[in-house]
Amino acid sequence: MKQFHRTPIARSVSAVLAGSALATVVIVPAHAQQDGESVAPLEEIVVTAQKREQSLQDVPVSVQVLGNQQLEQLNLQNFADYIEFLPTVSYISARPGVAQVYMRGISSGGDGVHSGSMPSVGVYLDEQPITTINEVLDLHMYDIARIETLAGPQGTFFGASSQAGTMRIITNKPVIGEFEGGVDLGVNGVTDGDVGYSMEGFANVPIGERMAIRLVGWHIESPGYIDNVNRTITMEGAGVVKNNSALVEEDFNDATTSGARAMLKIDLNDNWTLTPGVIYQEQETNGVFTHDPEDIGDLKAARFVDEKYEDAWYQASLTLEGQIGGLDLVYAGAFFDRNRDSVDDYIHYAQYWDNYLEWYYQTYYYTGGCYHLDAQYECTDPTQYIVSDENFSKQTHELRLLSPQDSRFRWMVGLFTQRQEHNFDLRWIVPGMDPDFGPTRTWPLGTVIPGETVVWQTKQDRVDRDQAIFGEMSFDFSDKLTGILGYRYYDFENSLAGFTGGLDACLDDNGQPQYPCYDIAPNVNDVSKGDGDSLKLSVQWNLSENAMTYATYSEGFRPGGVNRATVATLPKYDPDYVDNYEIGWKTTLADGRVRFNGAAYFLDWNNFQFAFLDFDVSPLTIIQNVGQAETKGMEFDLTFAATDAMTVSLSASYNDAKLKSPYWQDDDDRLAGAPPDAPIGTQMPFVPELQWTAIGRYEFSDANASYPGYLQAALSYTADSWSNLNVALREKQASYTIVNLAAGIMINDWSVDLFLDNALDERAEIVRYSAYYDDPFDAIFQDSDITVNRPRTIGLRIARRF
Fold it and tell me: Which domain holds residue 563?
């Protein structure tokens, strides 16, 4: 409820002082207050989405913003919260810190493999791209200036992995000459679940006349709401029974998140400013965030291993801004490091012992009745799990030079370079297996933890390098017409090295590890290189002072890469490209009380990268360029100040994303004239046709109110979607609607907020994870876990601002 703590003018001044050259939101009154007149409720939003400070209404790009006030008002604290209120973005998620985001229908459903395709949406933390495969950063949303989404290809400004759009998280910056601080304490409880709490605080402290430091800290205990229930698995053919009674627990998917942020701002002189900063966060989650309502029960799962996920990361950044000969110069450098350790239950393989695995293992490995043998050569406990040790690091540097903004001809030119490395060690472990079949020894590229019996390991190092020169020119042909040209030249070099394979492939005749492994698992050590360019052409037409329309052609791309699969003849995969044709509008109506922005677009996705499994070729995921897809869509954002106290908003996107060419997984099937696995017109996976959010807020904030307060209702709707491109394997993910309610009051410097999130207790099918098993008789066995949202949650937050 920060809007009750400071006047609009004070907020405007602070926002201006806190801004950076790349990311700034400035809030200014829409009209100057005159005697007898009221200030218009809608406020102007100034952004720098195009790396130059502009009013949102003047930017010829489809931009949606969740600002500092909205994040607080909607009680949006993490990725799962805020993503529901960005209808231009669709997503899938397995748990906190493991997610993929999509925009404008650019989704094949095959993303997420460690050594596979880069994401199609770029994610930024302040100045640095932090895009990672399958692991969107789950930064706690406290003291955040805004989240900004730029829909459509952003290849010229933001480069690779922004082929469908860019999502940017902007933190609040230090303000020189002003002290402010705050403390927030919260408690919340989940229906039929556990209780959690939060502690947050920030302080902006001036240091002399030219320096200020901003310190932020948080500790969050998120309650669990999924039960691990008693379950017994019987494999009749193997004569083995397994029970998980020792791990039965209610509300076992709790999470703990702690972090801190420090940023220093130094005015070196009247022209130059230096801003170093560091952010650290660690998160530990237990259990799973999926349930199996069809086979086990609502908000219930059955796990036979103590699953954990530990995620710790930090970012160190430095920004230098100044002027040289009337030109603005900005340098932004950052280093990002992330470590993830996890244990994932793999018992679902054993559930299909009779139907699949017994045949598979006997055919390809041993003939002793089953694969997992104990010292007596009898079938052993089938418990199995995956242990993951991963490190991701990224170093980026960007230098850009900008001309004066008020000139008729404006330009910007920049240089960009980055190096990112992903080192991952994934081990499939069956602890009860006889050591003769799974020795606990030092492996060629890593040390096996004592007591582990590893039957499969992927130990690889991926390095991605990118360099680019980019720029944009704008020319005002008249007061009404502006032409824009953007261009980026880039080159990339992506390498993959390491080992992937089964245990038996690495043993010599004496049962000792051998390296290299020449059987089914050859070593990977290859490089994919390339270069290219990306173009943007745009025409902006100012219809009036309060209305603008634009037409844009823009291009996006993703680099190619190396297959980690165990067949040496598998080719590398090539870059894929998106061509975007867009018409948009920005309007301010009704004397500043209505803001209506939107865009209609058509996208061509060419030679897109797709990941799939084909055990006839390799036991590992294969990435290939398989075809073409297209999206026809529309998105808009409407805000209406109905009265000085009542504001309503509606945002929505519609995407008709379909396959443009048929897809066959096997070329032999295509040559034989077999029906395609996905025919022309197949709806692309994980793309809801319709998404919308609606927010209504009524504020009791007039001068006569003893205790200013508010009432608020927020709704978000996501239509159904498909879980796979292959029509024989995919399932429909049901639509869902989330309703959040809130109320609050202000007492002097204190505020009290009451939240009721997911008031209707809706079960969202965020993603269905389906396991398919194909036995030698081509019978498909299927089981699904569903990532679900948090059930109805009631929360209380008490805050004080200084």
Answer: 2-310+317-801
Number of domains comprising the chain: 1
Walk across the sheet containing 144-151 and list its strands.
63-67, 144-151, 165-171, 121-125, 128-129
Torsion angle in degrees (nearest 10) through CA of 673, 677, 683, 688: 180
What are the pLDDT digits (tens) for 337-364? Answer: 999 999 998 876 554 443 434 433 333 3
Name the 3-class secondary structure at 408.
coil
Q: Residue 246: phi, psi to the nearest 5?
A: -70, -20
Q: What is the CATH number of the domain that holds 570?
A: 2.40.170.20
pLDDT tens digits for range 49-82: 777 777 888 889 999 998 888 888 888 999 999 9
Cα separation of 23 and 548, whole Å? 23
Judged against a pLDDT cut of 50, whether residue 519 lies above it is answered with: no
Q: 567 burial class (0-12, 13-18, 19+ CB within 10 angstroms)?
A: middle
Give per-residue pLDDT as tens, 713-760. Answer: 999 999 999 999 989 888 899 999 999 999 999 998 899 999 999 999
Rounded to the nearest 5 degrees, what angle is found at the Cα of 284, between the Cα atoms of 564 and 191?
Answer: 115
Pairing of strands 121-125, 165-171: parallel
- How many angstroms separate the CA atoms of 723 and 710, rounded? 40
**pTM of model > 0.70:** yes
**Is the separation of the CB atoms in 42 and 130 below 8 Å?**
no
Question: Using CA atoms, how far apart are residues 373 and 500, in angstroms rounded to an integer?
Answer: 23
At 156, give phi and psi (nearest 5°): -75, -40
Among 612, 407, 450, 445, CA closest to 525: 445
Q: What are phi and psi of 247, to 5 degrees?
A: -110, 5
Q: For 346-434, where are the E strands, in sequence order? A: 385-402, 409-429
Model confidence at 618: pLDDT above 90 = no
